Amino acid sequence: MPSLLGVVSVIEAVTADLRQRILTGELQPGAPLAEVEVSIEYDVARPTAKAAIENLVRDRLLERRAHKTARVLRMNPEDARDIYRTRAIVEAEVLRELAEKRLVPSHAREANEAIKALAGASPRDIVEPDMRFHRSLVDALASERTSRMYDSLASEVVFCMSQVQGAELLPAGLIAAEHEHLLELIEAGEGDRAAEVLRVHIGRARERLAERLGGEAGPEAAAPPATEVVFTQ
Prior knowledge:
Elements: H1 10-23, E1 32-33, H2 35-42, H3 46-58, E2 62-63, E3 70-72, H4 77-101, H5 106-116, H6 127-139, H7 144-166, H8 172-187, H9 191-212
Antiparallel strand pairs: 1-3, 2-3
Helix pairs in contact: 1-3, 2-3, 4-7, 4-8, 4-9, 5-6, 5-8, 6-7, 7-9, 8-9
GO molecular function: DNA binding; DNA-binding transcription factor activity
Protein name: DNA-binding GntR family transcriptional regulator
InterPro entries: GntR_C, TF_FadR/GntR_C, Tscrpt_reg_HTH_GntR, WH-like_DNA-bd_sf, WH_DNA-bd_sf
């Protein structure tokens, strides 16, 4: 069993390790995760294995039909589009509110600096600071309900990001540059412009992933850098 650090329950530790293996692509979409095999591999009781699997089903990283073995989510193009559209609705309004206050979260700046520092690293390494950047913006509102709503999407958003980076669909430099532009627009109080840049930023990832999953890419896939967006009222 891999080393699992930190003071956590056995169920949480097994859940966390399985989640990491899914997000890094070690466990591929469609791969089965049976309670017996998980119990043996992690040397835990079968109820513990079952609980860990149920956690990942609840996070929508695994899917399981009645009386069937759970399998790693096999996402289709419309699943990906729905996840990206939903997060865009939340994040666009967050940007408008932050811009109204000219509130630039320090944690978002730190996350983006981490992305810049990963130039030349494994593309999947970008996923954690990328998600941290977007989550920092949401959490900066200090709204428990907004953060909770975003958290309900978090596992699926990270799964999408992992798919994007695993296929090397977006370079770190482009992601970091567009993040930087978002922060500049927040600081300038230009919420509508920030929301438009976000639309381009998320739309490009959405359509490139949809194509990767077997769909037909929309025009957003070929969008120029959002730093070049011309805003018209």
